[in-house]
Amino acid sequence: MRPDILAVSLCHKYIARLKHEENKLEILNLPTSTIYRSYNIQTLTRLFSQINHTSSYVVSQLQWEHILPDSVSTKLAVVIDNLHIAMIIDFRNEDVEPIFIKQPRNEGI
Hints:
Blueprint: E1 5-8, E2 14-19, E3 24-29, E4 34-40, H1 41-48, E5 59-64, E6 75-80, E7 85-90, E8 99-102
Antiparallel strand pairs: 1-2, 2-3, 3-4, 5-6, 6-7, 7-8
């Protein structure tokens, strides 16, 4: 069993939590301690990318966007090692599809 991955946004208003066993990404609102958004990583990848992968996904990193002082975080990158992709999620705008960046393994993400 792999431990959950946690990452605090640079604006300190959100925590991203990846639950490995469920392939579930949650964006938690820190001031209210509630779930702001929830995503299934496997479902998002299948719906919006050209990648058809059937085994479990290996997420190694959650990385928040860099922001200017006094601004609010809106984007989060999810690095999926075994697919060699970074998925960028704009969690504040539900109408925007995730962006996928695919790199060869030897170049890294």
